[in-house]
Amino acid sequence: IKDRPSNVDGILVINDKSFVIVSEFEESSLSVMESISVWQALIFAFIGGLILNIMPCVFPIISLKALSFVSMGGGSTKKVRLHALNFCFGVIISFLTVAMAILLLQKGGTMVGWGFQLQSPLIVAFLAILMFIIGLVLLMDINIGTSLTRLGSVGSNDSSYLGSFMTGVLAVVVASPCTAPFMGAAIGYALIQPSAITIPIFLSLGLGFSLPYLLLALFPSLITKMPRPGEWMNTLKEFFAFPMFATSLWLLWVFSFQTTADSLISLLITILLISIIFWVVTKSTSKISKALSLLAVIIIILIQLSSINTLKANTSSNESASDANSDAWNINIEKELKELDQAYLINFTAAWCITCQANDKLALSRPAVKTYFEENNIKYIKADWTNRDNDILEVLTEYGRTGVPLYLYWKPGLDKTLILPAVLTEELLINSL
């Protein structure tokens, strides 16, 4: 609003009580979102989706899909095209489903943001178990006749188009903690717009993520440019079990922030029991025993998830995240520090955000950065969003974001708070400050 006044004075009457109001308008950070158009948001979403393919959280799933395409090197172009299209369809449907879920929850009065599903210990535990099972299947070459074991669609004998679709779904679920460059502004813009604008932006995000596979669907002959199938694929397939195990360990680490030590031990015991059952499957030749083993795995998982569902989330993650090198965050801290003319850097982070953890190791926790903070009297504050926190989401929304990471920097002399890049290095961070 061009002619907006700088302050407002008056009397506010509530329940027959009068209050004198004298207030000044602050420059809202929503101007960040207002400064981009629908077309820019669509382009940002597309580029962000494309970059997601190389983000570390998506690598284990994408690498398996790439390996499965290599295995089709001698197959028909129709088969390659259909597998690629099914994968893309799974990706796009999943992004649209996430968009619809966020919109419905917001209309119901629930504040949620990007990656909200990983704020649920139930979903984190399920994904940890699932990643561990996929790792076992890849390492042991187990075939128990279910689509669950073919989520990676690896192997020349795999003709399951459902497997390709489910791999696309799984890729989006695993990608949700990541906020790629350009993506944050696009999603933040999308979620304050009407549904008619929000849905196309998420569709553009899905199309960007699917682009390499859409090209493969359009030009199946590109698969001939890949290495020829051979024994090396079995070795590589077994190797890809270890990124799956690493992903499972990371999810267990996230789970430890969200629940209690007893819950974590219970989940670890569940994973141990599942590994024993899979070992039994490899030693058995009876189809009945394999079917019973599969049933036992399903029952164990359901019992574990049921017990987790009754737990209350650990709400102290934000307090525990503030270590000796950072101060505790609260929703009024920016205003308080600005009144004191105190420079600050606020790190909005989460345990399930791999980009956040990478930035912490590569930049924020580096000795040179800590020294720079001390020498320039910059307060470092962590706002941990591992568990749901509506205050944090409110601030994220004010700055045109719906997910982490977000880095806010201010010092005396700046007209407004600066938003630092989503991907940081030590040199980039110091130069930005």
The gist of it:
Helices cover 58% and strands 9% of the residues. By secondary structure, the protein is of the alpha/beta class.
Q: What's the topology here?
A:
Blueprint: E1 7-14, E2 17-24, H1 31-34, H2 38-52, H3 59-70, H4 77-107, H5 121-140, H6 161-175, H7 183-190, H8 195-218, H9 232-239, H10 241-258, H11 261-283, H12 287-309, H13 317-321, E3 327-328, H14 333-339, E4 343-349, H15 354-364, H16 367-375, E5 378-384, H17 390-398, E6 406-410, E7 418-419, H18 426-432
Parallel strand pairs: 3-5, 4-5
Antiparallel strand pairs: 1-2, 4-6, 6-7
Helix pairs in contact: 2-7, 2-8, 4-6, 4-8, 5-10, 5-11, 5-12, 7-8, 11-12
Mind explaining what this structure looks like?
The chain is an alpha/beta fold and 433 residues long. 58% of the residues lie in helices and 9% in strands. The chain is built from 18 helices and 7 strands. The strands form 2 sheets. The protein has a 5-stranded mixed β-sheet with strand order 3-5-4-6-7, sandwiched between helices. The chain has a two-stranded antiparallel ribbon with strand order 1-2. Helix 7 crosses helix 8 and helix 11 runs antiparallel to helix 12. The longest helix is centred in the N-terminal third of the chain and has 31 residues, at 77-107. It is globular. The chain starts with 6 loop residues before the first strand and ends with a helix. Residues 25-33, 144-158 and 315-322 have low confidence and may be disordered.
